[in-house]
Design goal:
alpha/beta, TIM Barrel, 2 domains, 7-stranded mixed sheet, 13 helices, 14% strand, disordered N terminus
């Protein structure tokens, strides 16, 4: 066992003490939340046990990590129940969990005590291959548990006039990835179609394709050029399928009904997500000034609801960066107020056929909120259960964001239990 001094980062109840308040909440889902919330540090022994030939290492991603570095560390941790923890390498000073390797297995430590045995994702076979244009395939299409990720571009035009979302580091991380590992600025549809074809040769590995990027405001109407980019990519990807529609999710800007109709009619896209990021107009205006400038909170929400008429009830979603609404100095005064507001807005959307999921907010060094601290484990457990209860009440599916396809939403892990 590796003994590490536990830094004084914040005073809070232990994991077991918090979980004791919620005896019906699944322990492994709560652990996933807490590990995402606090991050991980890999011991030297654990790093040596990682096998690049077998294990999936951190691949190009749309956001950076807590340590601000790009290192060949594991992409994700795998839990005994099949759940995954997409988690950032984190400086020890921030009190992360520790990943160690002992007796031929990876273990998760908290305060020097082993709390869970874990494993690492197996690397997809296509990761080691090149496209015919000579680009490493893992730089173009990355993998989640059963999902292929296509990040069309990691540049967001909201940053042009300093109006990027305050929790986000998309542009600073884009430059880092381009400079350090050679990620292309823009993807070519023919390259993406080739990588998808290669990935689909792995039987049973992948069941969904997800596209996302930063917002592009250019065009005759705001976001027209962004829509053009996605149509081009989706049409190229669609050449790999015999059916007109294929299992797919687009996470994009809040498109108007004309733009959404173009996407639906001209591609095989089956689900659409546009992230409000934080609920309530005043928090949205402060934290997401670019989204507020170009569409506004009410407009963004209305466009989500309008998308239900095109993609169908349960095939439209939004995500919130849970905990960011508590940021200082203008966030909610306490976690009770935040949860009440979040669940009220989530219910408003659920009544109208829009699914809400959450991610655990990670204060990243390249973001405006780099020096903040995220919410408590108690907050995240209550929010996760509340969001799942709403989906159950309103009969909404979360298939395109479940633990198999995405793996990044603790609340959606609960869907398979109810």
């Amino acid at each position: 066992m590796v003994a590490l001094l536990k830094p004084a980062y914040r005073a809070e109840p232990s994991f077991e003490d918090v979980l004791a308040r919620y005896p019906r909440f699944p322990r492994l889902v709560a652990l996933k939340i807490d590990v995402q919330r606090r991050g991980v540090h890999y011991t030297e022994r654990a790093e040596k046990a990682v096998d690049p030939a077998r294990h999936q290492l951190r691949s190009p991603y749309i956001f950076g990590s807590r340590d601000g570095a790009i290192k060949p560390l594991p992409e994700s941790l795998l839990l005994r129940d099949g759940g995954t923890i997409l988690v950032d390498p984190t400086p020890l000073a921030q009190d992360p969990y520790v990943v160690d390797y002992e007796d031929g297995r990876f273990v998760l430590l908290d305060d020097g005590r082993a709390v869970e045995e874990i494993d690492l994702w197996p690397k997809p076979a296509y990761y080691d291959k090149l496209t015919t244009s000579g680009i490493k395939m893992s730089l173009l299409v990355t993998a989640r548990p059963q999902r292929l990720n296509v990040f069309q571009s990691s540049y967001c035009q909201f940053w042009v006039d300093d109006k990027g979302c305050k929790f986000c580091d998309i542009v600073t991380h884009t430059k880092q990835q381009r400079d350090e590992i050679g990620v292309p600025n823009r993807l070519r549809p023919e390259d993406i179609a080739e990588v998808i074809a290669e990935a689909l040769k792995e039987p049973g590995r992948f069941s969904n394709i997800c596209l996302t990027s930063g917002s592009v405001v250019k065009g005759p109407e705001v976001f027209d050029q962004e829509v053009d980019f996605y149509i081009e990519l989706l049409q190229a990807i669609g050449t790999n399928f015999k059916t007109r529609r294929f299992p797919s999710q687009l996470i994009a800007s809040a498109f108007n009904e004309r733009q959404l109709a173009r996407l639906y009619e001209n591609t095989g896209l089956t689900s659409y997500t546009s992230d409000l990021e934080v609920f309530t107009a005043d928090k949205f205006d402060w934290i997401c000034p670019g989204k507020a400038k170009w569409v506004g909170y009410a407009g963004w929400r209305d466009r989500l609801i309008g998308a239900v008429d095109i993609f169908g009830r349960g095939n439209v979603g939004t995500c919130i960066v849970a905990g960011a609404e508590l940021a200082k100095p203008y966030g909610f005064a306490n976690e009770d107020e935040a949860i009440k507001a979040d669940l009220e807005e989530a219910e408003y959307l659920a009544e109208r056929g829009v699914t809400t999921v959450s991610i655990v907010w990670v204060p990243r060094p390249g973001s405006a909120f780099h020096d903040q601290v995220n919410a408590s484990l108690d907050y995240y457990i209550r929010l996760a259960q509340g969001l799942q209860d709403l989906r159950a009440r309103y009969g909404l599916s979360v298939d395109f964001d479940d633990y198999r396809r995405c793996g990044n939403h603790p609340d959606s892990d609960l869907a398979r239990l109810q």
